[in-house]
Amino acid sequence: MPLPRTPSQTVGPYYSIGLCRRRDNDLVPGGTRLHGRLLDGAGDAVDGMLELWDARSHRWGRSPTDADGRFEFTIAKPEPLGNDAPHFEVLVFARGLLEHQRTRVYFPDELKANAADEVLAALAEHERASLLAQPENGALRFDIRLQGDEETVFFAV
Amino acid sequence: MGADDAIDTQVAVDWPPYRSTQLRHPKRQVVVLPERFAELEGPVFGESDFDRLDNDLTAAAGGEPLGERILVRGRVLDEDGHPLRGALVEVWQANAAGRYRHDADRHPAPLDPNFTGAGRTLTDDEGRYRFVTIKPGAYPWGNHANAWRPAHIHFSVVGRMLGQRLVTQMYFPGDPLFDHDPIFQSVRDPRAQQLLVAGLDLGVTEEAWALGYTWDIVLGRGGRSTPPDLD
């Protein structure tokens, strides 16, 4: 019988003391800006933290959210991995989240690869849309909604 | 033992007693990724990734912090009991008076100029970590009338695989606040609650210097929040 896992607990409101001791959001210096807001079911800003992971290039980053729920990273688009469209794995941590959430961000200029992607293909149209970054003034915009009609798709962690 | 006897280690994410969950917990069923992503590797850290690793929280600010000096030691393991080497373990905590060094903490308890409350380390070849710190105090948090958090140390662990990521809290044995704390109680199985409680360990204790606690951390392999089989 496997050992029982240690249960998860919330990161709480003071996570930055331990987890944001330095800037970790520059995956690719001078790269594309990927930014957005972390929002709750009322559309209000969430105080929390995101971790971004490019499993292909082994690039990792972490960004706290500010008072408006804003996070940002500088990135390069990950290479495609097999038949999987380029994407980042995203982990979301926040006060009020007793366990972190896992989602993905895909890229709007990858129409063909996105259409062929197994994970995206299994989702309904509006669900797929929640995982697509949007071009915005040379940057990429990606909002995460923890609840509500436009709730972001989350994956089993 | 049958499967029914397995400890339920899941946390209740939809948990009204902890009010902040209300607008923040996702309500849709999580999507299960194809099996080939189950063992997707995660970030790996080494000593060179940090200007310093600091597992002695009593040495961070020049002088000795106030409070009860303690040692916290344990191992990071996978579900098969194998040690995880090189796991990044980051901790943060309140000081002995129950106050965090954070702008948002308004609890009128004193800050300690000699305590920042942050530490980090990498596990050794046997998966071991060790911190020297002080025992954090309980503090009020406004969730409900007389809401006080039991003393705890926040732990963040980055394992080998992305599915092994864990953020949790370590508690101290016998805390009378356990029964009144919705965060602790969000783990519903009492046996799983005990997995969050360190053990007083006289073998770790250093004579005439600091009490020792042992707390092992077991990381999953993904699938924790996978919906149960519907058969």
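qc> Chain A has a mean pLDDT of 96.
qc> done
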